[in-house]
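Board work, copied verbatim: Hs1pro-1 C-terminal domain-containing protein
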Amino acid sequence: MVDLHWKLNMPNSDMSSKSPKLSLSEKSSPRKSLPSLQLPSITNDIATAAPPLCAAYDHYLRLPELRKLWESTEFPNWNNEPIIKPALQALEITFRFISTVLSDPRPYANRTEWNRRLESIATRQIEIIAMLCEDEEQNPETRGTVPTAYLSSGDSKIRSYSEMSLLPILATWYKSKDVAQRILLSVECQMMRCSYTLGLGEPNLAGKPSLKYDTVCKPNEVHALKTTPYDDRIENYENHAVHATHQIVESWIHVSRKLLERIVEEIEGKSLEKATEDCYTVERIWKLLTEVEDIHLMMDPGDFLKLKNQLAMKSTHYETAAFCMRSKELVEVTKMCRDLRHRVPEILEVEVDPKGGPRIQEAAMKLYVAEKMSGFEKVHLLQGMQAIEVAMKRFFYGYKQVLTVVMGSSEANGNRVGLSCDGGDSLTHMFLEPTYFPSLDAAKTFLGYFWDNDNKWV
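↓ predict structure ↓
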């Protein structure tokens, strides 16, 4: 998502600055006074761009039609369908993207690096899809619900691999044969721990059943959305690249949203191990989104800036929201990631002190040191939640850097993105704002001070 213009008003909220007691047992008492620690305030003002801009963004990417594909249900008994389906569709869009790049007639296109980047993105997606499949197989409640077909099936209408996906076709085209075959090997390797494979034409040396890829993914319907509403009046090859890039991003953002909804349900149901697995999947998705955004660095500067003008990407004088904030689902997912901090007291099984006392910090310190053998699932979940924070802030930091490189620092400064944090740059605030988990931060700070003093307080 590349454009400019994002400014938020960042209100300050007052939080208690009381320091927690460093006590790992009821009888222990510190012999030294602890340093005071001011807990930072956390802002919560992130909003989408103006409604007309969000509508134009959705229209350009044909998101209403794409959402219908994400939300369609073919297998009511398969609980993971709302998550796996958009992930596979994002992968299929990547295959189409590879075909588009290799068909690029421009002699100045850097096809070698394009191929490497898209192959890397496809491999990262396959890795995440394999993780989702493995986690589903390990869960007794969902194991065996995936729609698959066996190679030994007597039904002659069932093939061992997809008939509609572009990947088997790319594996036979001389321009894309090497890239496609490397991707197929990635499928074979990543799906090794799973009881079935994706059915994209990979070797399948174990003879495992194949996912009914065509029925789940619906490649023909996905590829029907490859055109933009402006193809008839815009002759710019980067238009196809921008369109495909953002369709991939939006598909994975939707996957993240479904996972975050499931994480909340799992925490409420005390399924901490499952919640941890989903947290680390969300973290990997943020990293994937960062890599997908880097695709903009490969676009020809002249053609891209021309396309920006043709699409009238630039906001009005009164619009300050960055282009990424035109994605309503990105804003929603960002809020959901930040709101995971409200689950910390529930995980630690303590109540928030209405007077601002350090109950949560003390509970976290005990968990990290004295109770980690019995509460390691809690530790893992808290680590996973903080990993999401790091990956999300890294995404917005990378977004700003890509923005500056692609658009130019002068253009970025003119639209309030290249300014300093003190100047009100909200993109900078996104990755420089205080931690979303101040209680965990305080606990680790005091534990560090505790061990630095040779454990003499207990």
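The chain has a mean pLDDT of 84.
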